[in-house]
Amino acid sequence: MGTMGETMNIRGVDVRVASVLPRADIAVVGGQSAVRYPRSKNIVVWPLDEGGTASPSVLRAAYARVLKKALPAAKAGTLALTFFDAGIDISAAARIAAQEIFRVARLAPPSFLPRAIVVVPHRVRSAAAVRKVMEGYLGHIGKTLAWGPFVTVDTIIETGGGIVLIRRSNPPFGWAIPGGFLDYGETLEEAAEREAREETGLRVRDLRQMHTYSAPDRDERFQTITTVFVARAQGRPKAASDAKEAKVFRRDEWKKLALAFDHRKVLGDYARFKKK
Hints:
There is one protein chain. By secondary structure, the protein is α/β, with parallel strands linked by helices. 30% of the residues lie in helices and 29% in strands. It is built from six helices and 13 strands. The longest helix has 19 residues, at 56-74. The radius of gyration is 25 Å and the shape is elongated.
């Protein structure tokens, strides 16, 4: 595996574990050791004592704090991050480090992202253990979890004596329930309201969760898991975003349409849902 270990990439940021501190644009180090790292242009001092102990939640908060402070100064450069276990299990501490690095790299504005984050255990003997856990954890996210299943929402909008359906402008084509993918940081309800507004121009109210659909083949593009909501709205729908057309249909009308995904089944379940 070598001194530097394998490189993991998150949104263009190379993440790796090293045994010694490399030349960096900014380094996050312990206060007792700050004077020993002259190869960095800037220093951020850890809010934890090098030899002290802390709970997992305190350790996580410390990672979040120093990463938030260091990222703007390390943009497009190298951030060297001294790894602290804070006296807890080394494997748990390495997972916390990996989780916080992934979180900030996933959420930070692109202009704040460094070119590389190098994690350097302040105890050299810990390097191999930290590297194994972080490479395994971040590798699993990048090679498995990041590829799905994806989370989506659909909203059956009741208005004008029928429901609103949109004609898709992108494949798979056909008529469909307004919906789309959950954005990072959103709740399902927020996503349902946003997608309904973006695709139909309608602001929904009285949002109620009907059912979640998870058949692996329900979406011919890739595996998606959707939660379907029922809501009400006033006004005439106006197509936008991924919708080529938006219209109100009664049950006898939508039953004759060519529907995308598994939306014929969903609307059949909706009809039974309304009879309860």
